[in-house]
Amino acid sequence: MFNNPFIKQLFGSFLDLAPILAVVLVFQVLIIRQPIPDVGSLIAGILFVILGLTLFVQGLEQSLFPIGESMAYAFARKGSLFWLLAFAFCLGFGAAIAEPALIAVAEKAANIAANGNLIEQTDAAKASYALGLRITVALSIGLAILIGVLRVIRGWPVHYPVFFGYVCIAIMTPFAPVEIIGIAYDAGGIATSSITVPLVTALGVGLATSIKGRNPMTDGFGLVVFASLMPTIFLMAYGMAI
């Protein structure tokens, strides 16, 4: 039974979740000393999480990773810098705009902004605010992936643009509205989640593999850090603009 790849992946997902479950149970039973509420729903939820995580990993391995790598190979062979950079930007923008975590947080931020009287308490105002946050973050992710791909092509050290990004953040923070700073700082982690990271990683590794003189280990990775920095810069600029 354990020779089946799917069963092995299910067991691996359970082992990945086991430390989290152990911490929750230990604190619930030994520290808080309260019974676990609705054990049946808890067990069902855990099983769903294990199954969902397994299917998600299988999906990454069978679709997102191969697609990103094959597109990188194809554009590298095509030899057109413009189309490669255009693809990188569109990939980053499309992945970010579809990111479930970003959608959820943007809606939550819009509701909080409305309750704090920063925007009108209407559905249209909240939808517009949430959409503005999503588009701003998506544009920043697209630009970040474009810069990351250009770095792979040119062979630039990864730390130069990273240092520049952090300097920009440090300079902009005192001038940005206090209401947007927290969202901006969290935006990078929110946007680089379940959809963006696999596609971006596959693109970088595939591109570094297909370009002569590039090392997939040293040049292929590093795109995600740009995707986590740019949203902070863009959202603070967005907050200052509105």
Describe this structure in words.
- This protein is an all-alpha fold and 242 residues long.
- The chain has two domains: 1-62, no CATH class; 63-241, no CATH class.
- Helices cover 80% and strands 0% of the residues.
- It is built from nine helices and no strands.
- It has helices at residues 5-31, 39-78, 81-97, 100-115, 123-154, 159-172, 178-191, 196-210, 223-241.
- Helix 7 (178-191) runs antiparallel to helix 9 (223-241).
- The longest helix has 40 residues, at 39-78.
- The mean pLDDT is 84.
Average pLDDT taken over every residue? 84
Q: Strand fraction band?
A: under 5%
Radius of gyration: 21 Å
Report the biggest beta sheet as strand number plus sense, adding barrel if it closes: none
Secondary-structure element order, as H and E? HHHHHHHHH
Total number of distinct structural domains:
2
